[in-house]
Design a protein that fits this description.
208 residues; Rossmann fold; 8 helices; 5 strands
């Protein structure tokens, strides 16, 4: 299975991904932007709050990072029959650059398909909570971080509201792929919801 973890800043998706990885023996864990040495260098550019990046340049950098990750990590693992857990994927581009930056969604979908050879996750877990809660969490986390990765957290609340609404719009459009996870509250409760969704999907895919 190819499982992606999506959500606004501070939604807790990365924490939940790590917990899932601990339970799924042999799962391959990766992230976006990043996941390979070259993609990690692109990540440093994209997330550094000191950088002012044109929206189109931004989306092209994300696509370049994604391409490296797909070619070097994701597809080889899937071809070996392994489960891949990815922290963000193509839906993030639609939510952040499409709904957030107001770039053309059809063009972004074409770029995503080109960068990934039309690879689509089997399951996308969308961690949802109010944008003001997530942003507060993320900014508190970044204040303690050694490396500056706060460029998106520096955007105003309206941007993050559009991103959240974009994610929910995508989920409504593809209910068979998305599972919306209530991300507010206790991390153990959130994980129980995640575990239930993954178990149900894996059971559904067992041949009868």
């Amino acid at each position: 299975m190819f499982i992606t973890f999506e959500g606004i800043e501070g939604s807790g998706k990365s924490t939940q991904l790590r917990r899932v990885a601990e339970r799924l023996t042999g799962a391959v864990v990766t992230k976006e932007p990043g996941g390979t040495p070259l993609a990690d260098r692109i990540r440093a550019i994209l997330l550094d709050s000191a950088n002012r990046i044109d929206p189109m340049a931004e989306v092209l950098l994300f696509a370049a990072s994604r391409r490296q990750n797909v070619v070097e990590v994701i597809r080889p693992a899937l071809q070996l029959g392994l489960t891949v857990l990815c922290d963000r994927f193509t839906d993030a581009t639609l939510a952040y650059q499409g709904f957030g930056r107001l770039l053309n969604l059809d063009q972004l979908r074409t770029l995503n398909a080109w960068a990934t050879d039309s690879l689509i996750p089997d399951l996308t877990l969308l961690f949802d909570l109010p944008e003001e809660v997530g942003l507060s969490r993320a900014r508190s986390r970044n204040a303690e971080a050694v490396q500056d990765e706060g460029r998106f957290e520096a955007e105003d609340l309206r941007f993050h509201r559009r991103v959240r609404e974009g994610y929910l719009t995508l989920a409504v459009a593809e209910p068979s792929r998305f599972a919306i996870i209530e991300a507010a509250g206790d991390a153990d409760d959130v994980y129980a919801r995640v575990e239930a969704e993954i178990a149900a999907r894996r059971k559904a895919e067992v041949p009868r």
